[in-house]
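Dig into what follows:

_____
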Amino acid sequence: MKKSTALQTILKSAFAAQALFIISASSPSVTGRMPANDDATVDITTDQTIRIGANIIIYGDGATLAKAKDIQNNILKNWATDSDGRPWTYFDPESGQRFKVEISAAVKLYQGKEKQKPEYIPDSYNPLSRNNYIEITTEPQFRSFVHAGDEGKWAAVPYYVDTYAHEFGHILGFDDRYFDVGRTSYTEMGWESNLMSCEYGSRVEQRNIDAIVGKIMSQYRVTDLFRNKLQIPRDTSDGYIYRGALNISRPNL
């Protein structure tokens, strides 16, 4: 076998193996969800509903059952529906279809116990984990943050009322829409009303939904392309056309 032919064969085999791994997100009948250090799971159903969900595990001296409920309620108040209480929708320009969008979060205590202070969390190093680990601190005037998309440290007494919903935006992959000059924060022009700004009373907007769902649809189409190339039959008998995940190493929306 010629060297060039051998190389092509190796590359073709590697591509097929990677494609099979990726296709697992869109074909649960083959291998189930894609194994990855996911920050949020994503489902697209046959009735044109897109579901985005995240698990948040809290620990630290400020992690109590009451605080877990407070964080979850604040996230859902901002992300589950629009500011008028209407369900989110997304119009896909490529297919001409309109999808209903459901965003959820479940906030739980680490090991089911309050105020846990682990030296390290083994599951946070697990590449198959789908949990986001957040330390809750009682340090005064602490500025909450998320890093690497699935870990962070949040204030038990937040800087402003919707801090937790803002930080959840980072888990989903959204950038801050403000910048700091010294000790003062300034919102980027055009983002004054958006939750990812630093303005009081800001909210999740349709452009946030369009950005994240647009990314999901692109991800879905890539896996669908691999499915077609590998000639894997589409199986929607379970009510899903796609089961995938968002893996955000850093905010990028």
Q: What stands out?
A: Helices lie at 3-23, 65-79, 163-171, 206-229.
